[in-house]
Amino acid sequence: MEGTIPDLVQPTHGILRRIILIIAITGLQADPLFQAISFGAIGLSIQKRNNVNVIGDGPATMIFSHGFGCDQTMWRFLAPTFAKRYRTVLYDLVGSGSSDISAYDPVKYDTLKGYADDLREIVNEFAVGPVIFVGHSVSAMIGVLADIDPPSHFAAHIMIGPSPCYINDADYVGGFTRSDIESLLETLESNYLGWSSTMAPAIMGAPGQPELSTELTNSFCRTDPDIAKQFARVTFMSDNRADLAKLKTASLILQCSDDLIAPIQVGEYMSRTLPNSTLKIIDNVGHCPHLSEPDASIEAMNAFLQTLRCDLDDC
Asked: Which of left, alpha, beta for 9 (phi over 0: left; psi -120 to 50: alpha)?
């Protein structure tokens, strides 16, 4: 039948999955043929939009979503480890990395809901079994929004440096005053490259690993400035505190001990507010422990996932 992919090359075929896994773990780029035979017509459209890459195999699916100014390469220290146990999905938010820039809609992406809608499509198209969502920074809230809008396929959330609101409000400590955020956004509007070179090292932290700050600076500078400006405003002005209580899914909050963007009070607030959450503090300076402290991040993730083994059909 025209347009039908033979059973032999469906993504469930073990040999093909092993080939894709080898490609991913060795750092090679997947040949377009593998993408074409792995995804259907709708999947190819979503794959192009979000530069979706699928590696690994297992009873559950782990989806990684990066933060502001980054792309899926930021998961290179974590994804290969978990691809040995789970079907692993990596993607770029529209406007970031190697996503399809022509798919960027300023109206759709003027709130985090636009990104959450994309995530739900990725889950529906590429996930198999229960879904473990790993979101860094703003993507943690994108995952929350995608989950609380039924039907949900999420079995667990791993939130790395999350914040439901960056602006201080009465007793709530978000880390910034409103004037701080407005000043930050004004600087970004007037001098994006200068803002990037100043903010990236502050966000990364990791004073003993300057190469990571350079990497993040370069990642910021590769992002389309107009898209980055809008995404920054959406990120830093969003307030998702009211959504936390709606999330019933088991969640791990990975909080760094010294994080300029998401101070420890934010992690503690989320732990108190999320009904089914675990807070783990990693000894790390900066906002990106998956890059600067990958071993500690993996250890914390494994300990959390161990408590959910039967829920993930991995007993």
From this structure: alpha
Residue 38 neighbours by CB distance under 10 Å: 24
- Kindly report, residue by residue over 199-233, the tens digit of the pLDDT: 888 899 988 999 999 999 998 888 899 999 999 99
Q: Which fold has domain 56-306?
A: Rossmann fold (3.40.50)
Strand-pair category, 154-160 with 131-136: parallel
Q: Return the closest-CA partner of residue 304 out of 160, 117, 168.
A: 160
Which pTM value belongs to this model?
Answer: 0.86
Q: How far is CA 180 from CA 119, 175, 190, 265, 315, in A?
A: 30, 9, 16, 18, 48
pLDDT tens digits, 62-87: 999 999 999 999 999 999 999 999 99
- Active site positions, annotated: 137, 259, 287
CA–CA distance, 125 with 44 (Å, rounded to integer): 10
Integer Cα distance of 296 and 287 in angstroms: 14
| Least confident span in 40-49, 94-103, 242-251, 270-279 | 40-49
Token pair 């920074």: residue:
137
Question: What b/e string do you get for 8-26 counting C-beta neighbours within 10 Å, with b at 16 or more?
Answer: eeebeeeebbeebbebbee
**What does the DSSP 8-state code read for residue 171?**
T
Length of the chain: 315
Work out the percent of the chain whose per-residue pLDDT is above 70: 84
For 145, the token pair is: 């929004």
Taking alpha carbons only, the member of 254, 258, 246, 244 closest to residue 305 is 254
Pairwise CA distance, residues 141 & 238, whole Å? 10
Specify whether the CB–CB gap between 75 and 92 falls below 8 A: no
